Amino acid sequence: MNIANLLTSFRILCIPLLVFFFYLPVSWGQTTAALIFAVVGWTDWFDGWVARKFNMQSPLGEFLDPVADKLMVAASLVLLVEQHATIWIAAPALVIISREITVSALREWMAEYGERSAIKVVYVAKIKTLMQLSAIFFLLLAGNEAEVTALFEHSWLYIWGYIFLYIAVGLTLWSMYIYLKVTWPLLASAELKDQPNSNDN
């Protein structure tokens, strides 16, 4: 357990803290939740930099890093969907979470055939992550602004949150297409390679 992995673990431990402040019945609760999310997003970059700079990369870190990202994003999207309860945020949240599950399953499946390197993170996915984190931060910071039908009567935080969210959805679908295109030859192959632990789950 090195510094980089401790930072990654810290991001996971921040999830219940974010939820706590999100529901805390005080005026500054959700603002605090947004700031926690921002710190976690910054730590995502920082722990990767520390791992590379000081040669702290490890199998545990490679496992924990994407898990921490996906848990925080999924938890935050669930909170926002519950708060706003509208298809305009529920649909993007569903697309983003479904994409993360699909790509994670693809990586696991390709790893069983020794082809995990074929689906390394692409540049589009990095921009997608930035837009996704920006969208969630702005929407958390905007607070509980009620009707999406009157979108342009809301604060600029709310408006930019939705703009970034829908940019993230577009990039989410684009990056998933890239991953599926790369893995399709193996997915569509007539025969499976030797796989001793295959199951029907």
Provide a descriptive summary of the structure in words.
- The chain has 201 residues and is an all-alpha fold.
- Helix content is 74%, strand content 0%.
- The protein has helices at residues 3-23, 29-53, 59-84, 87-111, 123-142, 156-187.
- α3 (59-84) crosses α5 (123-142).
- The longest helix has 32 residues, at 156-187.
- The protein is globular, with a radius of gyration of 19 Å.
What descriptive keywords fit this protein?
Four Helix Bundle (Hemerythrin (Met), subunit A); 201 residues
Largest β sheet strand count, sense and barrel closure: none
Oligomer: single chain
SSE pattern, N- to C-terminal: HHHHHH
Helix percent band:
over 70%
Could you tell me the mean pLDDT?
A: 80
DSSP, total strands: 0
The assigned structural class equals mainly alpha
**What is the distance, rounded to the nearest whole angstrom, between the alpha carbons of the first and last residues?**
32 Å
- Note poorly predicted spans: 146-153
**What's the CATH topology label?**
Four Helix Bundle (Hemerythrin (Met), subunit A)
Summed up, the domain count is 1
> What is the top-level CATH class?
Mainly Alpha
Number of helices: 6
User: Radius of gyration in whole Å, from Cα?
Assistant: 19 Å
Question: Hey, roughly how much beta strand do the residues contain?
Answer: under 5%
Query: What's the CATH architecture?
Result: Up-down Bundle
Name the CATH superfamily classification. Answer: CDP-alcohol phosphotransferase transmembrane (TM) domain
Based on Cα principal axes, name the global outline. Answer: globular
